[in-house]
Write a structure and sequence with these properties.
130 residues; three-stranded antiparallel sheet; 3 helices; 28% strand
């Protein structure tokens, strides 16, 4: 097999695999978007600055009402508050000029991730153990 035949076979295999998945609804990307991200309601856009790095990029935050589990005085409860649903770059900001890096786009996911440490941790045992 020479180089030309290898390229032809690779292109044919790749295109046939792509075309085979077009008609199958199991492979459509839209079914992987979780339903809880699609929240109806009235959104308010608020300007802010991205806190994830020292560049200080300007962002527009889409804020919507939602319920959040909070821990107060050792008791878990629900409270209604404004939640950041989407971040976009501010077009008139002199640093980022409407663009936003992937870290900035993921700031809302970082904030509301269930495995995020939400309180200070206290060491158990002496320093260096475990």
């Amino acid at each position: 097999m020479n180089r030309r035949q290898f390229i032809k076979i690779s292109a044919l295999t790749g295109s046939s695999a792509t075309l085979a998945s077009c008609g199958n609804p199991e492979y459509h990307l839209i079914r992987f978007v979780p339903e809880d991200k699609l929240v109806p309601g009235i959104a308010a856009w608020k300007p802010s600055i991205c806190p994830l790095c020292s560049a200080g990029c300007g962002i527009n935050v889409r804020v919507m009402d939602g319920e959040v589990e909070v821990m107060r005085n050792g008791q878990l409860g629900l409270t209604r508050m404004g939640l950041a649903k989407k971040l976009e770059g501010l077009p008139d900001h002199p640093i980022n000029q409407g663009k936003l890096c992937t870290r900035g786009l993921a700031a809302a996911e970082i904030t509301y991730h269930p495995d995020r440490v939400g309180h200070p941790l206290k060491r158990s045992g002496s320093r260096g153990d475990g």
